[in-house]
Amino acid sequence: MAGQDRKKFAILGVASVILVAMVVAVTLSTRNSNTNNYNRQQDVSASQKSIQTICAPTDYKETCINSLQSAASNSSDPKELIEAAFKVTINYLNEAAKNSTVLQELQSDPRSKLALENCQELAQRAVEDLEKSFAMFQTFDVSNIDDILADMQIWLSGAITYQETCLDGFEDTQGDAGEKMKEALKTSMELTSNGLAMINDISSVLTTFDIQGITNRRLLSEDVDILGHGVDQFPNWIDGKRRKLLQATPSTIKPDLIVAKDGTGKYLTINEALNDIPKNSNSTFVLYIKEGIYEEKVQFSKSHLNLIVIGDGPTKTRITGKLNFIDGTSTYHTATVVVLGDFFVAKDIGFENAAGPEKHQAVAVRVGADKSIFYNCHFDGYQDTLYAHTYRQFYRNCQISGTIDFIFGDSASVFQNCTLVVRKPLDNQQCIVTAQGRKDVRQPTGLILQNCSFVADPAYFPFRFQLKSYLGRPWKEYSRTIIMESFIDDLIQPDGWLAWNGSFALDTLFYAEFNNRGPASNKMLRVTWTGVKELQPTRLERFLPSKFIEGDTWIPTTGVPYNPGFIFPPPKEDARIKYSPVAPEETKDLGKGKDKDSYTAPPSTTTDILDVLPPSTAPFPRTSFGLPPVLSPIPAPKGTSSSPLKWLVGKLW
């Protein structure tokens, strides 16, 4: 077989694996060995053997085998196999969405109706993730397979999360709608999980067939193309217009749209401006929101791509709302602001849910946008303030305040140089900063908090020992949170972490603290669950921004301040420390074909420690919560504000 033909079939084989029915072995082995002498019985035998081989790494083998036997129809044509594989998964998800509509009509419980309505939307988003994956493979070059597989991992992970979020909506509902929906989603959830298992195993499959031209080269932000996001093809994420803006002077730069509460812009409200933002655009579009308090629910849709939203500062430009769980809104829909369009950037804006602690779940922002960035933004609320829902997200120099689970979700998110402010809860409540929701051990997701400050709001400070605070708790079975190089003030309890419900997830979660500082950073009295790890620097390297969210491929060109590796020189391994053994689950999301020992950290880029410490006395927003307080009397080391030279918006005014 010629080299180009071999590469072509490799691509098709990869695509079939990614699209959940996963027939790489079928496609390649039968294609390479098919002759005119093959009879039908031999075809069936070869197909069955290949199906069993490709289903071997999955957790739901019976579902995998049955779905492929049904979809493949003994075909040896790669195109037919891919189409059949794609359709079977989509059909299961669409059937689940249809069931949610039927069930909705039969429900008398209002919360069940809302949950079923959410399931329709979430099932559609899961389908879109699969369709996006399929579209990407129409034009990709096998030479950048590593980047493509990273995208596939994160998108399939998103499909898993959306289905799980559907089921989450049935908590505190009456009747059997939740159980019926769980049964309706059972097969599609298993197929999606199987797909993720196979993509993690795909490197070894390609190696088995000795495919030439495959490299592990990571594309830099200058040369990576993004495909399959609702348009035919995207150029570089930072397009020509944005590059020119980054080099322009303030007098030559103007935003595309201006929203102004005082009437000096074209629009008085943000929602009025949404209709004039181009849809599915591959060009940068800048929305400037002038100083003011905007009381409205805002959704930047999935078609709002490459959008930059700038305010006059997080204490001046404020978007606020009060939707909450107690008053009848599902947690998923309580968000004041929803961000769904990929490549979204927000700078100098404050987001708030002002419902108050007695209203329970009340989200300020929900983010389901891949490769999204928030720079110098404030997120204020109480319970469930920031819903970092899905995909890759980066937060720099931000402030997040709340009480219970106020950073939660199942994205792959990095928080760098951020301030986490714990507020005063109700008298019967405890405060928990994070609640990460990783459902599947192969999902490449988690919360990474690097060089952040955990501090008390002044109203909470006198009560911090009576009303306890914790770093996090496991929302889902494989919850993963890493806190590194951060300042932890004395509000955090000595045991550090809180259980969710009895022994749930204590053996399967993955929590680690590394090279932290501050009164509560001592780990001597931390909980001793199996899932709480003591890691060497080399095992932390895979959680650095350049590795965990492929940050080098999309963050630097924006000009947003960004440290790809350790911010401080990491301590050397200490023979006196008992490090946790490497469990098989620790690297399941890396993939069998990758060299798990090859991770090396970028060098520390810090020249002056004070230049990178997060601000511990950043101004607090003047909101409906009251007068601007000052932060904890025991602050983190004093920091300096950042003024990036390349950042577009810093050059606007």
TrEMBL record:
Signal sequence extent: none
The UniProt record lists the keyword Transmembrane: no
Domain of life per record: Eukaryota
GO biological process, one term: cell wall modification
Region named Disordered: 582-613
Reaction(s) catalysed (UniProt annotation): [(1->4)-alpha-D-galacturonosyl methyl ester](n) + n H2O = [(1->4)-alpha-D-galacturonosyl](n) + n methanol + n H(+)
Keywords assigned: Aspartyl esterase, Cell wall, Cell wall biogenesis/degradation, Disulfide bond, Glycoprotein, Hydrolase, Secreted
Active site per database record: 405
Pfam families in UniProt: Pectinesterase, PMEI
EC code(s) of this entry: 3.1.1.11
Biased composition annotated in UniProt, kind: Basic and acidic residues: 585-598
Keyword presence, Transmembrane helix: no
Gene Ontology MF annotations: pectinesterase activity
Compartmental location: Secreted, Cell wall
Pathway entry: Glycan metabolism; pectin degradation; 2-dehydro-3-deoxy-D-gluconate from pectin: step 1/5
Domain Pectinesterase inhibitor stretches: 46-198
Chain's role: Acts in the modification of cell walls via demethylesterification of cell wall pectin.
Family: In the N-terminal section; belongs to the PMEI family.
Designated name of the protein: Pectinesterase
